[in-house]
## 1
Amino acid sequence: MTEQIAVDVRPRTLAEKVWDDHVVVRGEDGNPDLIYIDLHLVHEVTSPQAFDGLRLAGRPLRRVDLTIATEDHNTPTLNIDRQIADPTSRIQIETLRTNAAEFGVRLHSLGDKEQGIVHVVGPQLGLTMPGITVVCGDSHTSTHGAFGAMAFGIGTSEVEHVMATQTLPLKPFKTMAIRVEGELRPGVTAKDIILAVIAKIGTGGGQGYVLEFCGSAIRSLSMEGRMTICNMSIEAGARAGMVAPDEVTFEYVRGRDHAPTGADWDEAVAYWKTLPTDEGAVFDAEVFLDATDLEPFVTWGTNPGQGVLLSEPVPHPAEMSDPNERAAAERALEYMGLIAGTPMKDIPVDTVFLGSCTNSRIEDLRAAAEVVRGKKKADNVRMLVVPGSARVRLEAEAEGLDQIFQDFGAEWRFAGCSMCLGMNPDQLAPGERCASTSNRNFEGRQGKGGRTHLVSPLVAAATAIRGTLSSPWDLQNDASQGITHDAQDTSTAEREAAL
Amino acid sequence: MEKFTTFTGIAAPLERSNVDTDQIIPAVYLKRVTKTGFEDALFAGWRQDPEFVLNRAPFQGASVLVAGPDFGTGSSREHAVWALRDFGFRAVLSSRFGDIFRGNSSKQGLLAAQVEEADIAKVWAAIEANPGVEVTINLEERSVRVSDLTVGFSIDDYTRWRLMEGLDDIALTLRNEHKITEFEARRQSWRPQTLPVK
Ligand code: SF4
């Protein structure tokens, strides 16, 4: 009995608290705990075999009321009213529709107001909230950890397991605190923080851990910014990322379609306030990052850990002490068609992609629109703006952002994963170079032979204006030298030239 | 999952080592949306050859595969197990298996029985002497009998127990279904519900 009390008062981390509150059966002798899943998100790519498994075994889907599906990976971003041209994409989506209908799962199909990238849909509906467990057959499920939820990606057998039992047998994760202190300079964003973290700890640095992002720089971020950071925890190899819930979180959730109301809301908030990591709780590892001197960040290689400040040059592999790292850097530079020592800012791009579950929320679109408003796009660059969900698209249109982007010369598309992974027709051609607000710069990720530089929405916007990798700081510099990039000026100049 | 205690079926010799998951099922078949119907994809690269063992008369109906060492190495694709299962295999004998393949097999009721390399050679000889001969696998005794030859195999206790009970992960979890139900009864009403609000 005394032992029990001792266990209960031990200071715990946020992750431990959420875990403990979901243990259905505590595993003995190193066996896994059976963990209850509050919310199961489903999309067309990783669900068909799981539904099939249920059918084969004659099992029902245990909790359709905790399951929700959307179409995102394969969906086109143009002509969404027409039949999907690619037959494999079409079949995957049609299969999801048949399965959802058969098992009674709520599905948001292409054309529906709530359709969109699965990790944008959960939060916007108010389904993602603090203190819950969220899974999805998709590694970027870590996004939802921004609310103080325990959220992670799972494989197809596990998808079936959750469908059948609403639980998963899991061994506890280790915990790592990532403390980011200080005030971000204007022009520096959440994306730059997480790219800097990954460059610091490496793409395997988080393996086996749940990362808890804390510190004043994290506290001052909006929910969108926190989602960007948790989204990319997986790129550091972590199982999940989390941020303790606070007033910012509560305000974001409050009033959304599925947010608790009345007495439920009060009970929820009272509980949510108990979740932040206790004073004196011990993490298995800790990392510190100073946000004060952070600058816009950009990747130069083919994994998200290969990044530098935008003001720096392409690194020299020869200067890397680790032989594996050096070999990887050499391979990456060859694939990327880059020469060591080239200033990152001199690198011209063909495409700018503003989208993906990392940076396609309304705040991301607003920030980028603010930069390009009234400006003229660089001639050789095409820019795709792909809202994360149909609702984000509608919101943006209500604010006139679509007009700003189109006046600028960007393409305004329908919602989905799009060029993040190019499962739909939005792909890079071989050798094309892209400044992308997405999360993975793997070889061929955005199209066979395509070259990806991961950037923030602000950098994406500035790059679209200048045609080379750039940040809003470069625009300020240009302005101080009398170069404004204004659309108006150009058209005046063109008119004069025409006379 | 079907219970596996003893099983008798035609054995097919696959006299190759290092049969990786890309050989078992090439990547192009991973685009499918089903978990069944992979029988045509099994060893697709080799099945073009009419002389390939599974294309020959007595082995077309084989249900036990007797393979060389390091079977099922490579990628984590569960499709490799699905393809073997869909073709009709209930067991694979080899002296060494890829780790993930072995784990995936146990999820799908396919027995990955580890047999000494010398004993595999004896089983191959017995099959060669009498093509189409049936082997009997006894999971309780951990033995394989073919004609008058009996050899042992190893498998870890937990997997053996699960196979004998016919328990997949889901079935195992559902043994605690009452605890899940109890947990659900305690679940606070503020927690998310996906069904349309109105
Ligand atoms: S936007 Fe990209 S990373 Fe996000 S879910 Fe879609 S494909 Fe995955």
## 2
Amino acid sequence: MNDMRILERAVQQNDIKISARKVQVYYGEKHALKDVDVDILDKNVTAFIGPSGCGKSTFLRCLNRMNDTIDISRVEGKITLDGEDIYDPRVDPVQLRARVGMVFQKPNPFPKSIYDNVAYGPRIHGMARNRAELDEIVEKSLRGAALWNEVKDRLSEPGTGLSGGQQQRLCIARAVATEPEVLLMDEPCSALDPIATSQVEDLIDQLRADYSVVIVTHSMQQAARVSQKTAFFHLGNLVEYGSTDDIFTRPQDPRTESYISGRIG
Amino acid sequence: MSDATQTSGAPAAQPKASLLVADPRTRKRNAAEARFRAYGLAAIIASLLALVVLLFTIFSGGLGAFRQTYLTIPVTLDAALLDKSGNRDPEEIKKVLTLTYGKILDQSLQAAIEQNGIVIEGLTAKDVSNLISKEASARFRSHVLADPELIGQTIEEPVLVNGRVDGFYKGRVTMESAARDGNTSPAQLQLAEAFREKGMLATKWNWSFLTNPDASDQRPEAAGVGVAILGSLYMMLVVLFLAVPIGTAAAIYLEEFAPKNRLTDIIEVNISNLAAVPSIVFGILGLAAFINFAHLPQSAPIVGGLVLVLMTLPRIIIPARAALKSVPPSIRDAALGVGASRMQSVFHHVLPLATPGILTGVILGLAQALGETAPLLLIGMVAFVKNFPAAPPEGLFDPASALPVQVYNWTQRADPAFMERASGAIIVLLVFLLVMNLFAIFLRRKFERRW
């Protein structure tokens, strides 16, 4: 069944959105990520898989410079977004993060109303001139996150009062409200039950129409279900990167094969 | 069958203990737990007892300060004595000294005794004139100065009686002790009793304890905490306007923005150390820095306030940092993830969540500063201050007292009536502290949000 779904979702576009070359990440003395070269395509879902501590989340956080908030981390190499080096000293990470949105492992809505959660990004970026425009953005984002019908009558209730799956979709709505070009998702379903997971996965599939989505996941099944491209990380190295179809059916590297077949990891 | 039971061996050899009987190990553990609970309960009871004894001592000794005995006598304000020019010019009236008013009171008192037909054996003229407080004539004078139209009329003037007579009605003085006392006599107390039977002498609620300034050693009945409350209030204003913004800004910077390096480590350790420095050291520092070096006036609330600011700063910074630290990092990530700047993430999300913790720290810091005595002694706030400080900001530079210092001051004096005043001042201080703590609890409840 998985195979069928992979076939349905052939890679559709080949515009390179993010390109990483020789990326090294150090946490203090620890060399956490070694020589990572990846091209992330636009309008595709790219999955990063690998065992815990292999550096996949670290690499994801490099893509919108969230690692800057960790004092001891150091990033070398070159990462470009639409050809522009995001680690150029002239780049303001705040501006970058508006274009590269992020959804975290644990749903982390602000302790504010559902409306304010979604409206926060547009507000600070001045995307709406008046309340009506803001309302429109909020509705569009919540619809985009497949949450509108569930919350439209209680927008003023706190976002923290929603269920786990709803909270995570709220976080996705919050991320898409700023109209990013790339959406980074750090194990977005690891705190969710199977039903909520499948809702979020469906959502990711829809988001592909508008965004380049990068998702880190522990679950190989999830990577197989939602992604077009898959990268396998192991011990800080990018072992193999290719179309999801190839990685899961014809892995080139023995380590990938062992991981996929469940012998390591 | 019997074989099987034999071979299943080990458990059968040791017969299973019944669940209905506790084994020795369990009994031992349970006994240990019971003992520990008993210790805890004993500790709680002991501390509660201590608190009850403390509160009982303070309240039984201090509530008397809120009641005061007054003698109300008819007084004729003779225009010939008080306003010689007869034109009711306040400047002219002011020229008449307190001594004259004292004489008028004396005469009125004598007249009152005669009118009511009070005859007491062994009553001397000194007993009569001493019945009313030495402070009474001064109050009488200010009463008349405030309302010159009274001159020429006969008014019912309530006058303070002396501290011993007041003490007689609060159980502090008895006929036996009065016989041995140079400042009163049984005859004087009998006179007071006679007035009380006529309904002219009564012990009433005493607002003037809260509004009056301190009084000299001879007149405890007139002493109040007015100047001390005002001084403490001014110092709290200084602390509020300096320590709170500086402390929270320092905490926010250190917690959210400062790079983590050797220098910030040193600063952090030093802030913690500063919180442990004895307060009297801050007093010496204040004396050297603010009075000897900066030449600010002695006994002024501004100096006291500045010293308390130095003392309170670490006590605000440390809880504020803890409050900021307790905000989950996922909130910061969420804000940064949608493209908020560091400052936006702090001020829009982290700070509102940390507010209850910060406010609690601020109020407890203020409460501690309010009760601080030692540093104030060193910068001269222990002085006898009779004049009220002006309104701020000028008033911050006028001499004033402070509540805890006033308590210290009164406990040093000989007259036992001051002990009552000191306990009364402690009650006032405790009420202020209680109100502040309740306010802290209220704020915490109001702003507390869950995430």
